[in-house]
């Protein structure tokens, strides 16, 4: 039977609930203070509250100083622990109105009393803090009541309950009782009579006698402890271990807790679920147990870390170092559970939405894409990972999930290095997993010199790199022409926003009187030198690209590749050969040029 305690002597109906969401103390005096707690209003009186609570004494005094004469003052207490329910009990205590305490509300009342300053300084002997503490000690003497009190330490109540050592005391009381002989505590701590004992009721001289009770087993506390949330349950198990609980009982409780885990998303952390899955794999648990853990972890895979996915293979027939099939199943579960929103509107016009956009739906899939790329890079060194398995895992991630493909390129490069025996067709098939247009400049530079990549992929990388370079140069020419024509709008539009960027479009500054002419001249010289250096860099990079493509073209012709498609490709690239370009320039008379055209001619770019 649960422990209860009654505070106060006046009838409980002195406090009446009235719509909308208001409590009123029914006395002969008119209410002169209104206390707002959340959505509830309490129409009370100053004297009972100020005489029992230091916090209310201060707040009511401040509110009364600014209130009109004859009007009730208003006080807001939205941060009181336990909310309106706890404040109602505290207010009843101030009026000496009957209030019933039990294991479910004593923690909230204890925290509210501390927050309201209802200590010995404001109430003398028998203050609310003292009363709540005395009843809490009684609650900790019972397993059921202590467990109920511990479960109530949740949400906004938890920080103050930790500060007042309520949570540690509950955990210590439960751990002590679980490690002791359960028969010493009796009913209602455990189910003393078993169902079989009740069925063995017999009649003797017309008097009913029950069967002989038997002592409960060591697992009597498993079910009730499993009702705790994971962080609190972990602390309880740690306390039990420190008090000498046997490893067998702890293992049994962990197994029981794992079987009762709710399937809702977010109840347990992904790291904890993957840790259970790793243990289940090592212990060769049943398929149903592992499937359930895989589904639960897969639903929240974006919260996982790379090291959590590296689950070792423990069977004798397996070949790979890590259980890649398990990761594939979890990834399939995540894609099935989280990409339904994209099916209705699969078009994504801006890949930057994955990182910078406000849409919260795109973030999990982009996080998982980075996680999968890192996982593939880890398992790529395993020579037993088959190409089909590597491809199937990589293809589960939608293309729009990757803002850039540097991660998958790194995984492919590691796989090619560890699997040097792959045929050229298999290498090309593997490289189709990445999009050469989504490689960063650093990745393009690495890929252009990577001998492990197929020649076709290297040509694609160079093609897209030159396209980007040509676009940059064309943009520079556009800005230069506008500057030469004196367009302040274009110059301002391409002005740098961060320090260290080159200002290709900086036009001449507006003329001003005074000593600013020297500063303007120095700025013009500085901008001109920066632009000249940038032009030299661009010219040098274009020359290098042309030489690389020309040498590749000669190599392709030497090994006997078809010429027609390559000629069309190089014509699109504008790489018909430097000698041909020079002949064309010598034969064509130079047209009249403006300052912008002179820059184009000086760069010798066949754009």
Could you please describe the fold and organization of this structure?
- The protein is mainly alpha-helical and 607 residues long.
- Among the domains are: 4-167, Potassium Channel Kv1.1, Chain A, CATH 3.30.710.10; 246-341, no CATH class; 364-477.
- 55% of the residues lie in helices and 6% in strands.
- The strands form three sheets. It has a five-stranded mixed beta sheet with strand order 2-3-5-4-6.
- The longest helix is centred in the C-terminal third of the chain and has 43 residues, at 516-558.
- The termini are far apart.
Keywords:
about 600 residues; five-stranded mixed beta sheet; Potassium Channel Kv1.1, Chain A; 9 strands; two-stranded antiparallel sheet; mainly alpha; about 55% helix
Brief rundown of the structure:
With 607 residues, the chain is mainly alpha-helical. The protein contains 28 helices and nine strands. α8 crosses α11 (230-242), α13 (270-282) runs antiparallel to α14 and α18 (362-379) runs parallel beside α20.
The top level CATH class name of one domain: Alpha Beta
Number of beta strands: 9
Distance between the termini: 90 Å
Quaternary arrangement of the chains shown?
Answer: single chain
Shape: elongated
Q: Report the total helices.
A: 28
Main beta sheet, described? 5 strands, mixed
Protein name: NPH3 domain-containing protein
InterPro entries: BTB/POZ_dom, NPH3/RPT2-like, NPH3_dom, SKP1/BTB/POZ_sf
GO biological process, one term: protein ubiquitination
Family: Belongs to the NPH3 family.
């Amino acid at each position: 039977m649960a422990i209860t305690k009654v505070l106060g002597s006046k009838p409980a109906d002195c406090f009446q609930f009235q719509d909308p969401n208001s409590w009123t103390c029914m006395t002969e005096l008119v209410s002169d203070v209104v206390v707002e707690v959340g959505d509830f209003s309490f129409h009370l009186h100053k004297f009972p509250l100020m005489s029992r609570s230091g916090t209310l004494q201060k707040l009511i005094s401040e509110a009364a100083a600014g209130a009109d004469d004859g009007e009730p003052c208003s006080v807001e207490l939205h941060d009181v622990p336990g909310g309106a329910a706890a404040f109602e009990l505290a207010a009843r205590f101030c009026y000496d109105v009957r209030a019933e305490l039990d294991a479910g509300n004593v923690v909230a009342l204890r925290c509210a009393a501390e927050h309201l300053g209802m200590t010995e300084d404001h109430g003398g002997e028998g203050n609310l803090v003292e009363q709540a503490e005395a009843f809490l000690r009684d609650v900790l003497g019972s397993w059921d009541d202590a467990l109920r009190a511990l479960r109530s330490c949740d949400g906004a109540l938890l920080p103050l309950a930790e500060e007042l050592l309520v949570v540690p005391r509950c955990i210590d009381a439960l751990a002590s009782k679980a490690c002791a002989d359960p028969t010493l505590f009796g009913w209602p701590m455990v189910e003393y009579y078993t169902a079989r004992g009740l069925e063995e009721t017999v009649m003797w001289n017309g008097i009913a006698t029950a069967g002989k009770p038997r002592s409960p087993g060591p697992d009597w506390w498993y079910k009730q402890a499993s009702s705790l949330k994971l962080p609190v349950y972990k602390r309880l198990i740690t306390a039990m271990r420190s008090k000498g609980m046997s490893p067998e009982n702890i293992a049994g409780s962990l197994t029981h807790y794992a079987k009762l885990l709710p399937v809702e998303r977010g109840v347990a952390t992904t790291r904890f679920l993957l840790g259970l899955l790793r243990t289940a794999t090592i212990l060769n648990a049943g398929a149903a147990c592992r499937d359930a853990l895989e589904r639960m972890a897969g639903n929240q895979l974006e919260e996982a870390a790379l090291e959590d996915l590296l689950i070792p293979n423990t069977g004798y027939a397996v070949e790979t170092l890590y259980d890649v099939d398990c990761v594939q199943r979890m990834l399939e579960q995540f894609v099935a559970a989280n990409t339904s929103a994209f099916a209705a509107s699969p078009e994504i016009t801006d890949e930057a939405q994955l990182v910078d956009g406000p849409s919260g739906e795109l973030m999990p899939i982009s996080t998982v894409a980075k996680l999968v790329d890192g996982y593939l890079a880890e398992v790529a060194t395993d020579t037993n990972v088959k190409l089909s398995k590597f491809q199937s895992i990589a293809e589960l991630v939608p293309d729009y999930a990757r803002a850039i493909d540097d991660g998958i390129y790194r995984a492919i490069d590691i796989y090619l290095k560890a699997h040097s025996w792959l045929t050229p067709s298999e290498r090309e098939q593997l490289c189709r997993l990445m999009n050469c247009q989504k490689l960063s400049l650093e990745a393009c530079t690495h890929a252009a010199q990577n001998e492990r990549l197929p020649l076709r992929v290297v040509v694609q990388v160079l093609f897209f790199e030159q396209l980007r370079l040509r676009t940059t140069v064309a943009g520079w020419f556009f800005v230069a022409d506008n500057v030469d024509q004196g367009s302040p709008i274009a110059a301002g539009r391409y002005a740098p926003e961060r320090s260290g960027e080159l200002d290709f479009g900086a036009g001449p500054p507006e003329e001003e009187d005074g000593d600013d002419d020297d500063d303007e001249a120095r700025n013009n010289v500085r901008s001109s030198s920066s632009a000249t250096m940038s032009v030299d860099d661009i010219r040098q990079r274009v020359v290098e690209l042309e030489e690389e493509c020309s040498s590749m073209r000669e190599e392709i012709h030497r090994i006997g590749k078809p010429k027609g498609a390559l000629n069309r490709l190089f014509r699109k690239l504008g790489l018909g050969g430097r000698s041909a370009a020079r002949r064309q320039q010598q034969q064509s008379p130079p047209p009249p040029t403006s300052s912008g055209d002179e820059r184009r001619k000086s760069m010798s770019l066949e754009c």
